[in-house]
Amino acid sequence: MKKRMINEMKLTFASDSKNESFARGCVTAFSAQLDPDMEELADIRTAVSEAVTNSIIHGYRGGEGRITVHARLFDDRSIRIRVIDRGCGIENIEQAMQPLFTTDRSGERGGMGFAIMQSFSDRLDVSSRPGKGTTVTMQKKLK
């Protein structure tokens, strides 16, 4: 049987680091409709935090832009979250998804964003076009 969407939300905000916790809180509150346990909530919060932070730090390189978070809940108790930016894009997605790879030249970033998103999601898909932006799609089915 095909799963059916039961609710959705869309949030667009400036690529300011102050908005990372706002986005994380909104998606966490929205996902509460599925009655997740504390561990599942923590997983969702962490995955959203990493995706939004990547958009701010790497997608826009600290510059101005917009980030959209689109979340959908499904009747099989799953959530799909998309984090979309129109930043610089990713030249080599396979390389970018390798643990410890980073484009941050300051040395402050450890290159673990995608690995963390992957560990807190059941499925992680990344699509990107250089100069056009990146879409990160995370899916998680709750217990």
Task: Chart the SSEs and their pairings.
Elements: E1 5-14, H1 19-31, H2 38-59, E2 66-74, E3 78-85, H3 93-96, H4 113-119, E4 123-129, E5 133-141
Antiparallel strand pairs: 1-2, 2-3, 3-5, 4-5
Overall 3D shape: globular
Helical content band: 25-40%
Query: Order of strands across the biggest sheet?
Result: 1-2-3-5-4
Major β-sheet annotation? 5 strands, antiparallel
Please name the fourth-level CATH homologous superfamily. Answer: Histidine kinase-like ATPase, C-terminal domain
CATH topology (fold) name? Heat Shock Protein 90
Low-confidence stretches: none
What descriptive keywords fit this protein?
143 residues, alpha+beta, Heat Shock Protein 90, 4 helices
Please tell me about this protein's structure.
This protein is α+β, with helices and mostly antiparallel strands. The chain is built from 4 helices and 5 strands; from the N terminus they run βααββααββ. Strands 1-2-3-5-4 form a 5-stranded antiparallel sheet, covered by helices on one side. The model has no long low-confidence stretch (mean pLDDT 91).
